[in-house]
Amino acid sequence: MSSPKIFNGPGAQRAINAAHVEAESNENGIGFVKLMGRHSGFIAMYATLASRDVDCCLIPESPFYLEGEGGLFEYIEKRLKEHGHMVIVLAEGAGQEMMTKSMESNTLEDASGNKVLKDVGLWLSQSIKDHFKKIKMVMNLKYIDPTYMIRAIPSNAADNVYCTLLAQSAVHGAMAGYTGYTSGLVHGRQTYIPFYRITEKQNSVVITDRMWARLLSSTNQPSFLGPKHVSEENKETPPNGENCNGVVDIPQVTKE
Q1: What burial letters (b/e) apply to 69-106, b meaning 16+ CB within 10 Å?
Q2: Which pTM value belongs to this model?
Q3: Domain that holds residue 13
Q4: How many domains does the chain contain in total?
Q5: pLDDT tens sequence across 200-231
Q6: Domain co-membership, 175 together with 106
Q7: In this structure, are 189 and 167 located in the same domain?
Q8: Number of Cβ within a 10 Å radius of residue 15
Q9: Any idea what the CATH number is for the domain that residue 146 is in?
Q10: Is pLDDT of 191 > 50?
């Protein structure tokens, strides 16, 4: 479980606040922030909700397109004409499929076996600049990439207590003879969770859920979704391993 400070603490918020100041200080200013999030947009989503200054949040789970009616470029133009500035928050995994169409495919992997992603922040910021140059509209874009600085901050009291509880639970489980598990919080209770349940599925933002609806209400951005995308998202299982009744299905860990 990630610490809440990554989402709405001083790390991500400092970058978004700086982008907002830069955007307000320039004619048709755009503050563009790229945050961590290779496959899931939780950090970008919660940082956006905490800020209340963001006009558009782009995450891997929510497809978007650039040109044409209802596209990102049209929304940016509309926002700049109405308010004179805007702030965009982008998760690093968003828009990768559009980059592969316009650039050479990347098959490199890092030391951990993760695919090395192309820098969608630089690519998208340059695409925005090219679009406004094409339509001859003045625009000033400031790009901010805080990378690991959003989590490289001192722990607070809540972090220290949580880590202590995790360590104590792990020791209690080991002394009781359990193996192949990790300790964690489920519905506010300390639990033992099997390793395979931790890694069997990628936890993702459900864009038909309430939290994403709150974000759309906060930013006033379009969903960028067609009926096909919505129907596919409705078929997704609820997040965090919950069933429709909100009950977490976690089998017992084994004893040696």
Answers
A1: eebbbebbbebbeeeebbbbbbbbbbbbebbeeeeeee
A2: 0.78
A3: 4-153+206-233
A4: 2
A5: 888 899 999 999 999 999 999 998 875 555 45
A6: no
A7: yes
A8: 23
A9: 3.40.50.460
A10: yes
